[in-house]
């Protein structure tokens, strides 16, 4: 009988010759074998990952698996599942294998051209939406920009939840591949009229709107080169240009903060995600750029994660 997904990766002596009880490889059986293999490789949420991978291989929702636990898998289904599990055993991010990730309650298409959206980046969106809500009544709808948009996650969340206080979001990335993916996500969520995509470096494409932006947000590269060896294996599958920023991790943030006052309107806000040990350094960079009231916001882990500052009114 054909082996179940992940079964060949089990330690010697633990590889079942057949499904438990000698029966067919059912949903229940392949999940058990895959979860065991993933756990043996040190993957923390082995069972959950096994379920997401199987749901993807079968074209089902994850919870639908529980209604079909005794369903036998066909040969092609087992082959698809084996291939997916092998990729996860190689520590490829789950989102790249399934092709999608959730961010701010939105489902987004992702691939190896962009970072996988992370929960801590939702703090950046939270703060941006609060800034929009704090605009005075009667103020014209705001112009915003998302620098280094990647999959479009931040820009799409702002456009989706910014309401009437937001006119449009200009989403910028240097990578043509990332912009193609962002465009697909923007169209998927019906936001083509609210998100404008640009290819270019940092705020360069924003020259026509210089001095008019109420909000500038960014999740830029901020990992120092010397930290590469300490990163989880999954992170090393992501695009290096979206992760690493020189010896101190501040090369991109330094340039972004220096350029922010020229594109922000008086009183406009810049919000930047940072590394959890970069707080003091980015506060100093914001002040050196002439930005006012710089402060830091902590994520759910208690780490300093988002810089907020303003162009003086």
Topology:
Blueprint lengths: L26 H14 L5 H13 L16 H15 L4 H5 L1 E4 L2 E4 L12 H12 L8 E6 L5 H9 L4 E8 L2 H13 L6 E5 L13 E6 L32 H13 E10 L5 H10 L3 E7 L5 E7 L3
Parallel strand pairs: 3-4, 3-6, 4-5, 6-7
Antiparallel strand pairs: 1-2, 7-9, 8-9
Task: Characterise this structure.
The chain is of the alpha/beta class and 313 residues long. It folds into two domains: 7-90; 100-310, 3-Layer(aba) Sandwich (Rossmann fold), CATH 3.40.50. 33% of the residues lie in helices and 18% in strands. The longest helix has 15 residues, at 75-89. The chain starts with 26 loop residues before the first helix and ends with a strand.
Strand element count? 9
Task: Assign the CATH class of the largest domain.
Answer: Alpha Beta
Q: In angstroms, what separates the terminal alpha carbons? A: 73 Å
Using only C-alpha atoms, the radius of gyration works out to: 23 Å
Helix coverage percent: 25-40%
Structural classification:
alpha/beta
Mean pLDDT: 92
Main sheet summary: 7 strands, mixed
Give the tally of structural domains: 2
CATH superfamily of the largest domain: Vaccinia Virus protein VP39
Query: In the CATH hierarchy, what is the architecture of the largest domain at level 2?
Result: 3-Layer(aba) Sandwich
CATH fold-level topology of the largest domain: Rossmann fold
What overall geometry do the principal axes of the alpha carbons give?
A: elongated
How many distinct helices? 9
Low-confidence stretches: 1-17
Strand line-up across the major sheet: 5-4-3-6-7-9-8
């Amino acid at each position: 009988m054909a082996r179940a997904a992940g079964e060949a990766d089990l330690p010697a002596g633990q590889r079942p010759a057949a499904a438990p009880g000698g029966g067919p490889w059912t949903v229940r059986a392949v999940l058990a074998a895959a979860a065991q293999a993933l756990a043996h490789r040190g993957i923390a949420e082995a069972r959950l990952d096994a379920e997401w991978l199987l749901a993807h291989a079968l074209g089902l929702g994850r919870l639908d698996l529980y209604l079909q636990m005794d369903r036998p898998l066909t040969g092609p289904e087992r082959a698809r599942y084996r291939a997916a599990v092998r990729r996860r055993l190689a520590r490829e991010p789950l989102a790249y294998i399934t092709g999608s990730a959730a961010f701010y309650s939105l489902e987004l298409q992702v691939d190896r051209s962009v970072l996988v959206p992370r929960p801590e980046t939702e703090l950046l969106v939270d703060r941006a939406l609060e800034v929009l809500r704090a605009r005075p009544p009667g103020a014209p709808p705001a112009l915003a920009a998302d620098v280094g948009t990647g999959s479009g996650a931040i820009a799409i969340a702002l456009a989706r939840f910014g309401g009437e206080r937001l006119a449009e979001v200009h989403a910028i990335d240097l990578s043509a591949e990332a912009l193609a993916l962002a465009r697909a996500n923007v169209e998927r969520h019906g936001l083509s009229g609210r998100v404008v995509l640009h290819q270019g470096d940092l705020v360069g494409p924003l020259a026509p709107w210089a001095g008019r932006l109420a909000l500038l947000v960014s999740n830029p590269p901020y990992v120092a080169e010397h930290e590469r060896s300490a990163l989880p294996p999954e992170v090393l599958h992501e695009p290096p240009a979206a992760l690493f920023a020189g010896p101190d991790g501040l090369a991109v943030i330094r340039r972004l903060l220096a350029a922010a006052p020229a594109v922000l309107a008086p009183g406009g806000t810049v919000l930047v995600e940072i590394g959890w040990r970069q707080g003091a350094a980015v506060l100093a960079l914001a002040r050196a750029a002439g930005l006012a009231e710089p402060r830091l916001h902590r994520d759910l882990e208690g780490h300093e994660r988002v810089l907020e500052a303003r162009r003086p009114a």
